[in-house]
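Action item from last week, closing it out:
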Amino acid sequence: MTNKEAAQLFKKNITSVEIGTHNYCNRTCTFCPLSLESVNRRNFKNTIFMTDEMYESIMKQLSSIDFSGRLDFSRYHEPTSHKKYIIEKIKIARSYLPNADISLNTNSDYMTKEYHQQLLEAGVTNFAFQAYMKNGATSFDENEVFERINKISDKLGAPRIQKDQHQNREWIVYKLPDRFKGKIHARNYWNNGVNRAGTVLEKDYVRTQPCFSMNKGVYIDYNGSMTACCDMLTPELHSKWEVGNLEKEPDLFLNYASKFYTDFRTRITKAQWYPNSPCQKCKRDVRGKQAR
């Protein structure tokens, strides 16, 4: 397949690009593989960043197809931990992608009213503020969660949550007034979460259902490795299952159209798992009944 054909295929199918710009996170939530000692991304001084060249190349390539879907700063890191860096990267993204929705997923620990405003001015159009419980928590405490939601609201200068409208839910989604461009999420991951490709929580789960949830997205980690879904963590845990690598092949579209990536997508939509693949243990879209 030529570059032009691959780019056309990407433009036709992909509406979301999720990107991790570095590897640091200040949290070790027990429902996340970053809590595993075999991963350990907790040392701020040892942060490994995506190279400027790779990042700009991704933006240029997305610009070449006038990408107008969602660019999501998420993956397995805390994007707001390095303030100057993330503001610069968002500005670059916005300059290349004027029609894209730029989303930022944050644990909210570093957030302030001023920082939030700077991110809006840089080009963020949607925030997912996560109201996580304390590091090491192993169960959901609704009272603690409401306190955390209100702490985030106070940081932003936003109205506090009305508890009576959100009680007894597995997944609380508190929509902030429009000017804040976001929602605060608080979720009982232990009952209603995802086991992150079998790396946490129900590790012995065996999947029988096909998966269709990732057909519209691509997922790029800080080192350029690409996964078939957001649950896999290629640098530390799933390197065997990377479906592309921008260090080895800088062309984003050719990575997406590669035989292995194409075969992987096809197989998971038919529940025809590769032997011992992470998909066999993944609970993506197999959750509790209670939600928002």
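Closing note: The CA atoms of residues 137 and 220 lie 29 Å apart.
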